[in-house]
Structure formats: C-alpha cells, structure tokens
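Q: Glycerophosphotransferase, please. Structure only.
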Amino acid sequence: MLLMIVILFLLILLSYISLKRNRKPVIFYTFFLSGSYVLLSLFLWRIFNRALWNFPALFYSPVRNPQNMILCGVAALIIFSFLQLYLFISNKGLIVRNTHFNKRQWVTFVFLVLFVFAGSLIYTGSYWTMHDMGNVRFDQIVYIMSQPLQGTDPLKIREFIAKPLLSAFGFTSLGATIIYFLATHQLSLKKGNYIKRKKILSPVFLCLGVLLFSTGVSFGIREIGYTDVKAYYFEDTKVYDQSYVDPADVELQFPEKKRNLVYIFLESMESSYADKDIGGIEEENLIPNLTDLALEQGTQFSNVNEGQLGGMLQIPGANQTASSMVAQTSGTPLRASNGVLDGNNYGMEEPDSFFPGVYSLGEALEKENYNQMLFLGSKAGYAGRKAYFEQHGNYEIRDYHWAREQELIPEDYYEWWGYEDDKLFNFAKGSLTEMADKKEPFNFTMLTADTHFEDGYATEETPDLFGDQYSNVIHDSDQKVNDFIEWMKTQPFYEDTTIVLVGDHLTMDKDFFEDIDPNYQRSIYNVFLNTGKKDVDNNNRLFSALDMYPTTLSALGVQIPGEKLGLGVNLFSSQQTLMEKMGPKQFDQEMTKRSDYYDKYLMQGSDYEIEQRAEDDQ
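A: Structure for Glycerophosphotransferase:
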C-alpha cells in the first residue's frame, strides 16, 4: 500500500499549485517544504514513541504501521496549513520579501546555521546523556568521545540519532527558518506602510551565531555540572605527586608455588541488587548466589557492617567498563589527558602506546611467566581494551572476532554487544581448560555483558520472575556466574586457583533506581574466593577500583612491601586506603581534577607528548 507516497505527492502538488498561483519561487519552497515534512514526521514519531527506523513509512505505510501513517498525514497537514497562512498574509500585503542575500551574506548565514547546530547538539547531547543514562560523569563523556565508533552498541548509536541529533536538527531548522524569514522580509500593520529597516549585514549573522552557540554550550555544561567541568580542565590535584607508588619499583615477592587467577568483571554488578534485609535496595534478592558467595564462601570487602552485602564506591576514571578494567588492574584511573580529543592517542583504533606509564597486574604476572588471556563476547578493540591488555601483560585476546574465526558462532552472528553470556560461559570452559593444561600458572580474565544497560539482554529462556526485564536479566546472570563457579570447583585446577568476581561500575540504567532513597549508598559487588586468607578486616571499608590491584596480588599470596601499588592499597592489610584517609567526597573531587604528574609520567609518550609538541609549535 503506497498511501504515504501519495500523501507526500499531494503535499508537493498542492504546494506547487499554491506557489505558482502566487508567483513564488517554486523549486526553493517545494524543497524546503518536503524537508520540513520529513523532519516533522520523524519528530512526531519520536514524541509518540513510534519506530523511528522504519524510514520507508515516510512514503508508504505497511499495514503494521498505521500510527506512523497517521502522524505523517498530520505532519503534511501542518506544513501545508503554514504555507497557506504565509501566502494569505503575503497576499494581504502585511508581509513582503524585499531583500536577497549576496554571496558574503550567504556564507555568513551558513556559518550561523553551523554555530546554531553545534550549540544545539551540545545541549541536546548533554541533556540526553544525563537524563537517559545514570551515573555519568564528565570525565566519562570525554573518554567515550575520544573513542572510535567501532564496537559501540548499535542501539546507543540509534538512540543518539533519534534523540539529541534529531532534536538538534529540529532546533537548527526552526531557528534558521525564523532568522532567514526576518532577514529577508518586512512586516507592516497596514498595507503599503512598511517598517523601515536596516540592511542585514554579515556581522549580525556571525554575532548571532556565536551568541546561540555560547548559549548551547552554557546550557550543556549546566546539564553536566559546572563543578566537574571546571575541575577537569582548570583545577590541579597533588594526589599523584604525594601518594602514587610506581608498581615497577616495588619488589613483589611471589610464593614458591604460584597460584592461578580467574578474574571475572561482571558488567554493572551492584551489591544494591540484593534485598533490603542484607544491605541491598530490592524487595527480593536478585543475586542470591552472589550473595552467598560473598557472605558465606569467600571474602567480600564491604562499606557496610558485617553480615551485610556492600562493596566498593565508584570514582571518576573508573566509572565505565574500560576505565574500570584499567583502574582495577593498574591502581590508576583512566582519563583522556586534559580532554584533548583531536590528538588523543586513545582515539586510535590500534594505539601503539596505550597508557605507557603504568605497570599493571598483567605485567607483574607476565614477569612471573604467567599465561594470560582476556576473554569476552564483545569486540575487544572498543575503548582501547585490546591495546591495554596486549601492551600491559601480553594477554591473548579471545573476543567476538576470535569466536567467529573459530566458527563458534556464524559469520553474520551479532547479538547485543557481540554474542551473549550464555555462549560466553560455555566457550570459556574450553579456553580455561586449555590454559590449565599448560605447566605455567595462568591468569584468565573475563568480562560479561548481558547486564549492560538499557534493560539488559534477555532471551526466551530467561525466567520472568520479577515482572521487569532488567531484574530478570540480573537474576539470570547471577545463576550463570554461579554455575560457572560450580563447574570450576569440579576441575583439577581449582585447588590452586584464586577467583575474583567484581563489578566494573554501577549500572547506567537510569530508570532502574529511579525511586530509591537518595541517602542510600550504592556500591559495586566484589568477592575473593579460594584465597586462604583468615581474620580479614573487610567490613566498614571505604575503597575503590584502584585498591583491587594490590588486593588481587595479595589474594594470590604475593607479599607487597609497603602494601601500596599505584594509588591502591592492599585491603587484606591494615593500611588505610586513600579514600579512608581523605573521605569519599574529597577523594572523588581529587580524582576529577587534572594532574601534571599524571600527564607527564603516566601518559608519557602518548597524549602528553602530543600536547608538548603542540605547545612547542606555538
């Protein structure tokens, strides 16, 4: 059924007849009206939550999309009505076009439109980021912006196009139309008595463009938070100068019989998913198995009292998956150096020098002849993860691409971020057994993905126990992790293997915790299994992802002189963490600020070198 193409054709035909009859420039106005029709139709679809990606419905309406057809008809009616109103006023002599742009004015008008679009996109993008996602900080936004799109969740790209980008186009189109109209037409309250007006000059367009751009930037910064932006670019911290311990300079003492390590990053896994009786925020416990592992079988480090499920607190530089993986394994936050995006080495698909100044867990284990593997169902290259783990520990990377090459999944298979966790755990058993069969100790590092926002990844086999998808996915992930742990317990390597289960960051599914008590402290799940550690002071602790590095080595039986690596502190020791010394609020503020030490000694040879060359050239 080609009803919508008929509607578009009728709109163009009726507009053509009206414009021709009134001696208006037909081609220009017809093109403008057609573009307005498409934009307004998409805007109405978004307002009424229609499928924005069914673009053919702009021209025809399949039976399954009658609502889209109706909205397109409404858009056409609105556009045609405005045209008739304009022609009526024009014929009455109340408005007349008396100015045509010269070449210079057209150039400056184009710059005006670009300024308006940039300002609009900054505001709409900031609004979308802060209102559609949760727990987003400015450092996180800058780092993500510095990354290539390869490996990004297609759903997020589509949402960006459908929401902030479409809104920015709408604001720009409306603003440009009004400005063009006012610049080229005169108004009169009485026919023939036109208001005297000055000639439109190019500087007016430029000044107006700068003003509107600045307004968009100002509103965007307000959405993100002036405090974070100011701290990121203009405030300095001395935490690194005073407290950073270079792990490369620490003489780590490994036990004679080295223990294996299985380190599993659990996507968006919070202790908050437990029920209220044991420290969570839910009415029913969504993670009963992980709760049992933390409170009964292993050692959890917790910010709350004994017998309660708690965890680590989130900080800037460890608040998204890649940065948390780096922070947990290097004791150092990850941020784009000074927010420089154009020359940021992290933004390369294959950076040859990723965070060169840090000495990580992988490098410490590599020195002790560990075999190491990063195992994940997404594309490892996204956000620099592949580069980091290859350059800091020579990990073998087995990701989505590897699974396709091994024909574990079909060539055209792509679900969620690559392939789902159900397959991930099954495939992991083979790779883990392969590593265990070698004579050297191993470090098997893995990342889950099903619990990523928005709403997680559910299949027909995911039990519907709680009435909402994200709760069901979290509970199902809890079961999958437990089944994997139970499988490992039956394997010959288990006795000599320490297992670390830890969330990467708080969930960014904003709706999930929309109605919780604002005073409740959400925390990130962690547990250390099979460590042999006794009498550990693990409750009422204040710590972050930075402390996981020395704590993991300690769980392997490694002696750490001074108990500190990077900015992290061994939680199995009696030493206070930096967060405990400074307090969570101040420590968070310090991690937001820039640092010359960080840029010079940790970013050495990459971002810092680029910035220095730029300064020398000036």
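A: Brief note, in case it's useful. Strands lie at 95-97, 185-187, 260-266, 371-376, 396-398, 442-447, 497-503, 526-529, 564-565, 568-569.
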